[in-house]
Every structure is written in structure tokens, then in C-alpha cells.
Write the C-alpha cells for this entry.
Amino acid sequence: MFVFCYNLYGDRMAKLYFRYGAMNSGKSTALMQVAHNYEERGMKVVVIKPRIDTKAKDKISSRIGIDRQVDHLIDKNEDVRDYIYKLDNVKCVLVDEVQFLNAKQIDQLLFITIEKDIPVICYGIRTDFKLNGFEGSSRLLEIAHSIEEMKTICKCGRKALFNARVINGEFVFSGNQVAIDGNDEVTYESLCPKCYFEELEKKNEIIKVRCKL
């Protein structure tokens, strides 16, 4: 799959893509497939992710059992262009767990497409386990050329939209935004809105949500 577009004069233009979905929607697998497609044709790709994503250390890991070494870990206040612009013949930049980047870094990804004519494809989730938006994802929803939802299903069979945090087998709805999957007892489950609020109500947290509304 190649991600080139053309302007009215027929010139190729690179684009900034945001492909989002709930947990288990196949984002990391899709990223690795895109990387393979480029490399199979002899084209250089660069795979990056935020350093704060420690669940697979310096790799991208898929739940179906495949992984890939990343080329670069992005630090909190790093200008992403500083790394990309030092490289030659890059045909595509792929970003995993993009929600952990800040808004300024998302703007830098856009500048890469404009200044270097390199397509940038970002994969991540929109909201945390409390349904609050991530800074990186919110900015992508504002400025990305193309936005695509990657779908998965809830345990009930409906379309999953939200990511619920599970600790020691119990759903939790309070805590810090960042607690990476794979650290200690923390995991996540993709739920449809109905199932999410049912679990929320069991914890008596639904009252707090209604007060906000």
C-alpha cells in the first residue's frame, strides 16, 4: 500500500495520515505490513515511536506474535525533524503509538510531508481509558490530510470504540493517563460504549460522569 497523492497539476504530494482504532484493531500489524510493502520494492522506510511507550522497549510488537525493531525512539521534547532530515532516500515515515507525542511534534510530522515530500503514516488511539483525548491524537484529528478508523469488536460483538483499563482482572476508571500495557498487572480491553458504561456503573463511577454531563 503506497500513500502518494497528486495535486491539480499532476505532481506527487506527500500526506500526513492518521490511522486510529481501539486496542486490538491491528494497528501495529498494519504498520509492519506497510513497512514490508515498501521494503519489498527496495524503498527505505523509517519506523519511529515515542520513548515513553515501554511495553516492547525498542520494538513494535503485535498481539499476533510478530515484532519489528524501531529505527528511533522519540524523546519528550525532541524535534522529530532533527532525526529524519539527517537520513537520505527516505520514502515513508511510520509512527507507532502516536498518541504519546505532543502537539508540536505532530506539527513537525506535517512539516516533514511539506518540506521533504515524505509521506508520514501515524497509528494510535484517540482517547484514554477515561475517554479523555490524547494530545497527539487530538492534534492529528485537526491537521492530518487523511483520517482512517481501524475497527475491532467488543466482547459482546458490537463495534469497540473505547479502551478500558484492567488491573488484576478488575476494570478501573481512575489513575494517570499513561500506564503502558505490559507493565506489571495493567492491561486494556476494547469495549463498545454500552459495555464500557455498564462496567463504569458497576464501579459507581457513572455518577461522576453524569455530574460532568
About this structure: The mean pLDDT is 88. The chain has six helices and 13 strands. The longest strand covers residues 44-50.
